[in-house]
Amino acid sequence: MYLNCHSYHSLRFGTLSINDLVCQASALGVKELVLTDINTVTGIYEFKKKCEEKGIKPIVGVEVRKGSKLLYITIAKEFAGLGEVNRVLTNYNCDGIDLPERPDFQNCFIIYPFSNIPKQLNNNEYIGVREEDLNMLIRKEYQKLISKMVILRPVTFSTKKEFNLHRILRAIDNNMLLSKLPENEVCYRTEYFKSGQAISETYQNYPQIIENTQKILTECSVEFAFVTPRNKKFYTGSKKDDFRLLTRLAFAGLEKRYGKNHEQAKLRVEKELKVIDELNFSGYFLITWDIIRYSNSMGFMHVGRGSGANSIVAFCLGITDICPIELDLYFERFLNLNRKSPPDFDIDWSWQDRDIILDYIFNRYGKEYVAFCGTNVEFKYRSIIREVGKAFGLPKEELDELSKNPERVFRDEVVQQVQKYGKLLEKFPNQRSMHSCGIIISEEPLTNFTALEMPPKGFPIVQWDMHVAEEIGFEKFDILSQRGLGTINDTVRLVEEKKGIKIDIKNTSLSKDEQKCNEFLSQGKTIGCFYIESPAMRGLLRRLKCDNYKVLVAASSIIRPGVAQSGMMREYIFRHNNPDKFEYFHKVFEEQLGETYGIMVYQEDVIKIALHYGGVSAADGDILRRAMSGKGRSLSALQKVKDDFFASCKQQGHPENLSAEIYRQIESFAGYSFCKAHSASYAVESYQSLYLKVYYPLEFMVSVINNMGGFYRTEVYVHEARMSGGKILNPCVNRGEHQATIYGDEIYLGFMHLEKVESRLGLLIPEERRRNGEYKSLEDFIKRILIGIETLQTLIFIGAFRFSGVPKNELLLKARVLLGEFKPERRFETLFEEPVKEFKFPELKRNVFEDAFDEIEILSFPVSCTPFDLLQTKYRGSVMANELVQYHKKQVKMLAYLISRKHVPTKKGTMYFGTWVDVNGDYFDTAHFPDCLEKFPFQGGGCYLLLGVVEVDFHFPTITITKMAKMPFIADPRYAHDEEKRFETQEKIKEDVSMTFRAPYPQEHEIGLPRLKLN
Questions:
Q1: pLDDT of amino acid 606
Q2: Which of 78, 438, 614, 817 has its CA 20 to 30 A from that of 761?
């Protein structure tokens, strides 16, 4: 009898999860159930599965609303009927075509409310009669329509508390107070489950209405095969032609990559092609190749990563740049005959190029067939408190206090209500958004399966997420973007433009086998380089003295939280540095994991050990691997594999304590390790960026700055450029560009770094200069560029007119005289009809450090000097960073400038890891424990005096801080007579603060990883 059920996918309306909805129906003995969420089909696939588990016949449809107005409810007679509704909703969501008051659906039943009854009803159209509407049926105009009426018993909530929650959701949706919420925005108080018998009794005087309702339930069914692949099947139009083209391309690539007579590579290509053909995945490979081909034709750089890099066919097609033979990557990790879903390629482009690639995909394969995966953005607790609190009318101050202290017990009754209902909203979907990179390319029009929506980013999305996509037969193409590739691209272009040198950066042997690159790597000189610039990664590289590709590949995975948290990172470092001080505790570990000293580092290692030690099947090994990577997690499936693993180990005669230890190590991956191919892809890109940093450091750092950096703020990359011999100069209207630029060893910061200068103006200044020549003076600049007095002052303060030789003080006075309070539209008639009068300005002297304080105010860091030059103290520390390895277990006193700090929670409170530079510009690291921080906390960016004890851990020194104090700058000379402002500017010096909520990595004594053979 339930033709109109809402789940919480009816956003900011429904209060029941799909599971709750189905379970409540099952408890009442309901045999047929219809899900009709508002303007969405998000939950229908989960709904179908849950209903069938409970023995309920699932029926699906959509409740179509325009705003709060209910137009009609559609119920699909069969699955194809949903496509009709999806197309109407898609037209509305994506193209702004109005929702029809009366749709022309052939494969759906349509149920109208009393407020929207058509003059004539077709065979598939009915009127929904609520319990509250029954007394209207005594009217003649409705009596003649009883034969076209059905029971309308919507379900939106189940308890009084959930009804109140529904009202709160409606208030949030309408951005209004609960007390002001109109009745037409709220559902009826009867929208909950009631027994079938009770409903029949309510409508007992109208048996035809009951019959009509049952007729709809009987005639509707949803047949849908979850396991059917639904991606675009063929690239050329047929399986045979696809395979022929793929084979031709693969062998052409084979010759290009390996030469003519590489038998091992040839055999592997043939083996892979056979599997690809058997699994019908030739089309998937060719579509990916087609996207890469277009990218190459545009001169874009890409990185193919993830498990796809295990494939030599992908390598030969140019999808990836990882040779699977070199790294012993096995294809079965990517594709095997047990796998029914398509492969999964992850491909990165520069953040500047990605939208062009996306446009190509949508245009090439048709907008009806391509869309992004959606994601459900859930209510988060802090935002919940604010949203719910606003609905209850709490003032901002109380909301601030409440969101900061969510667990605090408040006496105020209203606050208690806010907390109570806020808790209920956790995990509720709040809005749909776009998956960051997952694209679906479908064989059929996507509206056969979903309505599409158009988020602000401008590409359509489906109404369900990647997990549902996979369940119903879609595998996404991951089209990603990153700044690292933008940096590499821009450096290569800049080197060619400025030095006339063409770099074949795609030739990976160029960087991987370079001795000087490996020296930089082993010393952790990698700031600005993709993935290997963070303090933790640079520390790891130094601990490993990493000087080759294979060790970097391992380092890229062991830095991941799962490997590090399990203690395997720590043990890998020990074994790498002490290869003669451990034993493989079983021969399988030596045979299968010899390259990583018997330590599980990659996801594949789980499969290797499960297969070769545990003796489990390849399919079970893959279940383990997927569970460890966070995909397809099923506790019951995982438990079965675990039981099988131990049973198989016992059958093979392995000692129980050894098997238990091995499984503990497998579990410790916890979903945060990389597959080896993925690590290798990252390592290649890291090497490419490192090669550019080593041989073209200034062009590289300029490109890092222009791509808005990576782990650190702009100031750190400016420092790196200076350390590499660059002369750093402030923006200049005659030499500068919107972005930073370089002439020889002179690096001009760009107008993009000036917060108060709009992008439009930052682009216009150099554009006008190129058109009509350099600016001759401030007056000439004002004549040619439409600019306000505040923006002009910013340019003067930063020194953008220093070419004129006129002091800043005089320029500021001139600017005020020339612009004053003029109206921009009258600028020519008021300023330039007559020659500009010459003014005699008094000579104004400037302190040598005034420029530095101008720079701090505008850029947040000084350019014309270092922060150390601005200190009151002349002390610079007793030890320098490059000497620390000589001071193991000794106390040192240092003066340093704060670069970054990372927050890490412990049982005793918060601790931090700091990164600093000394007066020589060299980096070092510190550890700050909770008891020390309580007495000597961080006080923002700037220079600090540090006292602590050095701990050298495998070549890498860290200072455990016992005391620290922030050192004051000299008084700001610009405010010599203003006591309040003399020390304000130094507070604008920034620091990088990163937050993590994981526990600190365990120490050696906490790990318990055996180093000797277990018997």
A1: 82
A2: 817
| pLDDT of amino acid 828 | 52
How high is the pLDDT of residue 243?
97
For 823-844, give one letter per residue: b (16+ CB within 10 A) or e. Answer: eeeebeeebeeeeeeeeeeeee
Would you say the CATH fold of 874-994 matches that of 712-845?
A: no
Question: Could you identify the residue written with the tokens 């004051």?
Answer: 968
Contacts for 172 with CB less than 8 Å, ≥ 6 apart: 12, 387, 388, 390, 391
Q: Would you tell me how many other CB atoms lie within 10 Å of the CB of residue 952?
A: 15
Sequence spans of domains, the chain: 18-219, 239-365, 712-845, 874-994
Size of the chain in residues: 1015
Greatest distance between any 2 Cα atoms in the chain: 102
Which pTM was predicted? 0.85
| Fold exhibited by the domain 874-994 | OB fold (Dihydrolipoamide Acetyltransferase, E2P) (2.40.50)
- Residue closest to 77 by CA, chosen among 69, 85, 67: 85
Strand intervals (E) in 472-524: 477-482
Residue ranges, the chain, pLDDT below 50: 821-822, 830-834
User: What is residue 833's predicted lDDT score, i.e. its pLDDT?
Assistant: 46
CATH H superfamily, domain 18-219:
Metal-dependent hydrolases (3.20.20.140)
pLDDT at 846: 74
Handedness of CA 865, 871, 875, 876 (dihedral sign): negative
Q: Is the CATH code 1.10.150 the one for domain 712-845?
A: yes
pLDDT of the residue at 838: 59
How much is the pLDDT for 396?
83
Give CA–CA dist 275/269, Å, rounded: 10
Query: Could you give the dihedral angle defined by the CA atoms of residues 422, 426, 432 and 434, in that order, rounded to the nearest 10 degrees?
Result: 130
Q: Which two tokens stand for residue 224?
A: 């849908």
